[in-house]
């Protein structure tokens, strides 16, 4: 299993005592360069009724200012995790800290600073876009001008007076996003916001989220089962499979796994002779693509092999390293 | 308290353009409209009726005959179910439950909206009754305005009894609307209970059926009936009991959307 980044405490602060010879006891305070997290989940577990647990010991940390892609196949436990984080399901085990506060203890304080879009858009279809936002404006008691701002941000200002029931799915998703953004939250929690959107709608939503994160500094926790979508959007990634976290780290760390060489593809003028030679060295090869695929070997071994092939009169016109693609990494992780 | 007011304002916006609002307005207007048509159908009686000393009693009895017996319980079942099911139909329970509001605030704000809608219904209905007496005089020259002063107190008392009579229906429909995630189940159970009440209203223990009180209120208004218990106290008891049960079930729901 791949290792994600080492988890740090959000406020990692150590105090210790050490003795310097010939000197009195000194006290030192060492404060790590720490990262702040807007969501910290630990030991989260859940089961519906007496069935099998759907979540087991979920650890999740969303750095402040990040776009955190919460990735996993359908049924992995993404929605259940997000519903537990937002209090839509009652917690059975573990702890959830949002914006530095314990969720069960400071539910109302936290919800004032969080915007959510859980699963399909929740909108009142008999009301106009403005009225939908007005419903929330009364609860949050934010200035009424925020309604126009939110609609402007998601590009629905022109249809503010139109009934939401007449909107396309993409427009409904954008309206739901406007409703989540209305009170200018510090954190957005979005559960599969691109579900059901056409490719154009997906691109629009992605750009919109990037813009919100960039311009308003809102941290975003977004779940999806679409790897390419998350790859294009997220700065940090958590992967869940069968109710367990199997990876958590930055996109760079996931890309680092991608750089690991899986093997080499060998192109020769005489594959049969080359295979004969390789079998004498007991190297396992695969040839189902018409090319010889070697396992991952040290660079010196590849160079030596090349020399041997050429010495036997077999022309080598290509040695191409095969790297992990993200999909392979993802599948390895979720199937592990 | 402030949070409750904000929550009520928010819930009140949701009823705009909704079927529940239309039902309130049209339901309240229907019977007075029928009575008005009936009065115009017997055009020759109009002048004499308006001149009679008990014109308002006649109109009150005629209007409440249809309303109390049939339309009011059905209207209350429909309006309560429509308001409560608004979140289910809009898939918006989760939206409501991630807003910074206590569950208690949400529960009482929604219940208040239903009760205010019910009051609006009564108000519109009474305006309708008043218009059935006044409109013929305004439209037809020969018809005089009612000479008898409008009996506010009698109307207020009568409306109060009918309002008390529907409270168990409101509470039980509200409970079912919060529990069931579909529209048909609470509506079906509500209409079923009402039909049972309708069939059983002559039974000696009928006053124990929570949906029967508007029928009994009408019968008691027409004839002096002696009952072993005060049906309005029983009705208030059912309302408090069902509301408390609805609250407990709502608060302890494991899934909030």
Automatic annotation (TrEMBL), chain B:
Claim: Transcription regulation is one of the keywords in the record: no
Keywords: Membrane, Transmembrane, Transmembrane helix
Transmembrane segments: 20-43, 63-84, 105-135, 155-176, 183-201, 231-251
Pfam families from the UniProt entry: ABC2_membrane_4
Domain of life, source organism: Bacteria
Keyword Transmembrane helix among UniProt keywords: yes
Protein name: ABC transporter permease
Organism: Chitinophaga qingshengii
């Amino acid at each position: 299993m791949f290792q994600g980044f080492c988890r740090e405490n959000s406020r990692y602060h150590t105090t210790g005592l050490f003795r310097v010879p010939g000197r009195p006891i000194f006290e030192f305070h060492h404060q790590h360069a720490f990262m702040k997290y807007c969501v910290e989940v630990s030991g989260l577990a859940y089961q519906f009724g007496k069935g099998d647990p759907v979540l087991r010991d979920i650890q999740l940390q969303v750095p402040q200012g990040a776009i955190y892609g919460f990735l996993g196949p359908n049924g992995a436990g993404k929605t259940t995790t997000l519903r537990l984080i937002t209090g839509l399901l009652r917690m059975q085990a573990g702890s959830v800290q949002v914006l530095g506060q314990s969720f069960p203890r400071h539910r109302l304080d936290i919800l004032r600073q969080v915007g959510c879009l859980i699963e399909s858009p929740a909108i009142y279809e008999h009301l106009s876009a403005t009225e939908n936002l007005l419903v929330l404006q009364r609860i949050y008691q934010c200035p009424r001008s925020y309604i126009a701002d939110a609609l402007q941000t998601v590009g629905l200002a022109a249809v503010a007076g139109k009934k939401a029931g007449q909107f396309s799915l993409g427009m409904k998703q954008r309206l739901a996003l406007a409703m989540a953004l209305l009170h200018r939250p510090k954190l957005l929690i979005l559960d599969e916001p691109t579900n059901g959107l056409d490719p154009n709608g997906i691109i629009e939503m992605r750009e919109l989220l990037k813009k919100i994160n960039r311009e308003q500094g809102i941290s975003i926790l977004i779940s999806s089962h679409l790897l390419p979508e998350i790859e294009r959007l997220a700065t940090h990634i958590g992967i869940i499979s069968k109710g367990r976290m199997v990876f958590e780290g930055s996109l760079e760390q996931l890309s680092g796994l991608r750089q690991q060489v899986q093997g080499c593809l060998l192109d020769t003028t005489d594959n049969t002779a080359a295979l004969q030679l390789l079998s004498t060295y007991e190297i396992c090869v695969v040839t189902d693509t018409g090319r010889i695929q070697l396992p991952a070997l040290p660079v010196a071994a590849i160079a030596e092999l090349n020399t041997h092939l050429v010495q036997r009169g077999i022309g080598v016109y290509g040695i191409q390293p095969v790297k992990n693609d993200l999909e392979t990494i993802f599948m390895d992780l979720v199937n592990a | 308290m402030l949070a409750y007011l904000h929550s009520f304002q928010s819930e009140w916006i949701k009823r705009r353009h909704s079927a529940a609002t239309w039902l309130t307005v049209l339901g309240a207007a229907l019977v007075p409209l029928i009575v008005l048509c009936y009065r115009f159908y017997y055009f020759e009686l109009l002048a004499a009726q308006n001149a009679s000393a008990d014109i308002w009693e006649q109109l009150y009895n005629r209007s409440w005959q249809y309303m109390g017996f049939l339309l009011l319980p059905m209207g209350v079942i429909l309006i309560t179910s429509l308001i409560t099911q608004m979140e289910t139909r809009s898939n918006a329970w989760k939206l409501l439950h991630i807003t910074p509001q206590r569950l208690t605030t949400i529960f009482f704000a929604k219940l208040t909206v239903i009760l205010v809608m019910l009051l609006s219904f009564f108000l519109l209905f009474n305006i309708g009754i008043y218009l059935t007496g006044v409109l013929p005089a305004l439209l037809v020259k020969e018809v005089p305005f009612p000479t008898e002063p409008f009996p506010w107190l009698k109307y207020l008392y009568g409306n109060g009894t009918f309002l008390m009579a529907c409270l168990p229906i409101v509470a039980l429909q509200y409970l079912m609307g919060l529990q069931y995630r579909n529209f048909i189940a609470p509506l079906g159970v509500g209409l079923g209970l009402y039909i049972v009440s309708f069939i059983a209203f002559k039974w000696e223990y009928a006053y124990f059926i929570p949906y029967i009180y508007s029928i009994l209120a009408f019968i008691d208004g027409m004839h002096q009936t002696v009952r072993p218990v005060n049906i309005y106290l029983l009705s208030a008891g059912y309302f408090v009991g069902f509301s408390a049960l609805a609250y407990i079930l709502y608060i302890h729901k494991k899934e909030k959307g």
